[in-house]
Design brief:
single chain; alpha/beta; Isoleucyl-tRNA Synthetase, Domain 1; seven-stranded parallel sheet; four-stranded antiparallel sheet; 19 helices; 17 strands; elongated; binds 5'-O-[(L-methionyl)-sulphamoyl]adenosine
Length: 515
């Protein structure tokens, strides 16, 4: 039996085009990119999807405010998100727009499946709606006349199709129970379960008071509720409704929908219910991450503190930004962005720890080993350090993989930093600058071990800081085809005598004044 290559399908939320990209969007996207790159290096065939959510009242209003027809408006604003993807170095395999024909076709096909299952009926909606959240609210949910999120609500009364969400309460609870890893983190999973236990009402899934959306098949006075339309994007990009297509067969169900905590309910309640109704497999995992504040304050246009991804990358560097976002806060929790925290993180971890290790090791090799990979001796102290670093013990790479599957980015980074700290201690203990005079062979052995640790660190860092890891591995003359996790194994160790390029600094320090 041939072993099919393992696949991994990961998605970002699709971003509303009413707004320009900001730190929050960048966060979700970078986290997904790191996972996508990790899985590729781990030998999987990956599909990484991002894109834009272009229908609905919110976008229609923004277009009207901009004095543009919605299609033209979305064409323009969607480009900002493509631009963000390139600024952040995202390795996405597809970029979906919900205004594309492939998506309109998929959303209508999904509607027809829900209808064929007997889960759609025509009725009338009378209740509150928040355009900002694109969500319906019960009177009892309102807080001081506003949505629980603080958004304005308006009264809506119109004919509407409904989805029989109430019929899925028990099935959803059974699904959560049987798949404890389907919603993470656990605290969020518990929130979802208690929400569903509290009872589900049928969901309004069409609108008639505006037109910017996908027509309901067979009743074109209605357009589809934007969340039903939007969630379907994950299927569209996997080739749906062609369930025989190779893409669908390789990639559906998705392995991970990454979302912010504010949109978990749509992904962990509505989406699985729609898929159950359509008799399609459910995504394996939804992870809800936390929110960032800026220097202690909520990010908002009115406060004028919205952080643009371009700005961060220009000021601190791409890899520095990516690193900070995933290292500073345990993924899942809320975090605070401050210039000081950014500067401290960059200096302590990247410049002083990893950067310093590389600088010290590579400049000694350049000066004292003729710019060639030195000769190892395999002393007990070398083996001890390498065993830590090489992630060869089956547990270490398995641990990192398990942590990544559960989005524990900060733990993986901590493990990489611990390797670097151990190597820095090793260099101090062995003191190759003294060995140079007393025992040159020992100096060579020390430097070989250090270079080998740096090679492993470089390989492991690739998903997080791809450009810097590339430079680091270039400095060790590691071939582009020798950088997957498979190559962490000692049989791929640096070959003595290999000529190395001139070393140069990779992680510069920054001063707080410049931050
Ligand atoms: N269009 C919907 C998603 C549809 S997915 C089928 C949407 N778009 S959004 O543009 O408003 O938000 C996209 C993501 O950005 C969400 O996951 C949200 O949590 C995230 N963030 C927005 N502000 C944020 C912070 N301040 N901090 C972290 N993430 C934040 O919702």
């Amino acid at each position: 039996m041939g072993m099919a290559q393992k696949t991994y399908y990961i998605t970002t939320p699709i971003y509303y085009v009413n707004d320009k990209p900001h730190l929050g969007h960048a966060y979700t996207s970078v986290a997904c990119d790191v996972l996508a790159r990790f899985m590729r290096l781990d030998g999987r065939r990956v599909k990484f999807l991002t894109g834009t959510d272009e229908h609905g009242q919110k976008v229609e209003k923004s277009a009207a405010n901009a004095g543009m027809p919605p299609q033209q408006f979305t064409d323009e604003v969607s480009e900002h998100f493509r631009h963000m993807a390139s600024v952040l170095g995202l390795s996405n395999d597809d970029f979906i727009r919900t205004t594309e024909p492939r998506h309109i076709k998929a959303a209508q096909a999904l509607w027809q499946r829900l209808d064929a299952a007997g889960d759609i009926y025509l009725g009338g909606y009378a209740g509150w709606y928040s355009v900002r959240d694109e969500a319906f609210y019960q009177e009892s949910e309102l807080v001081n006349g506003k949505a629980p999120t603080g958004a304005e609500v308006e009264w809506v009364e119109e004919p509407s199709y409904f989805f029989k969400l109430s019929a899925y309460q028990e099935k959803l609870l059974k699904f959560y129970d049987e798949n404890p890893g389907a919603i993470l983190p656990e605290s969020r999973r518990n929130e979802v379960i208690s929400f569903v236990k509290g009872g589900l009402r049928d969901l309004s899934i069409s609108r008639t008071t505006f037109t910017w959306g996908i027509p309901v098949p067979g009743d074109e006075k209605h357009i589809m509720y934007v969340w039903l339309d939007a969630l379907t994007n994950y299927l569209t990009a996997a080739g749906f409704p062609d369930t025989d297509s190779p893409d669908y067969n390789s990639f559906w169900p998705a392995d991970l929908h990454m979302v912010g905590k504010d949109i978990l309910r749509f992904h962990a309640v509505y989406w699985p219910a729609f898929l159950m109704s359509a008799n399609l497999p459910l995504p394996r995992r939804v992870f809800a991450h936390g929110w960032w504040t800026i220097e202690g304050e909520k990010m908002s246009k009115s406060l004028g503190n919205v952080v643009a991804p371009d700005h961060l990358v220009e000021k601190y560097g791409l890899d520095q930004t990516r690193y900070f976002l995933l290292r500073e806060v345990p993924f899942g929790q809320d975090g605070n962005f401050s210039r000081q925290a950014m500067a401290e993180r960059i200096n302590s971890d990247l410049a002083n720890n990893i950067g310093n290790l590389a600088q010290r090791t590579l400049s000694m090799i350049a000066k004292h080993c003729g710019g060639r990979v030195p000769t190892p001796l395999h002393r007990p102290q070398d083996n001890e350090l390498l065993e830590k670093a090489q992630v060869t013990r089956p547990t270490s790479l398995d641990d990192a993989r398990e942590q990544m599957l559960r989005c524990k980015f900060h733990e993986v980074l901590q493990a990489i930093l611990a390797m670097s700290s151990a190597a820095n201690e090793f260099i101090d203990r062995e003191a190759p600058w003294t060995q140079k005079k007393t025992d040159p062979a020992a100096m060579e052995a020390t430097l070989h071990t250090l270079a080998e640790v740096i090679r492993c660190i470089g390989i492991m860092l690739q998903p997080f800081v791809p450009d810097s890891a590339d430079k680091l591995l270039n400095q060790l003359a590691v071939g582009k085809d020798a950088r997957s996790f498979e190559h962490l194994k000692p049989e791929h160790a640096l070959q003595p005598g290999t000529e190395l390029p001139r070393p140069e600094g990779i992680f510069p320090r920054i001063t707080l004044e410049a931050a």
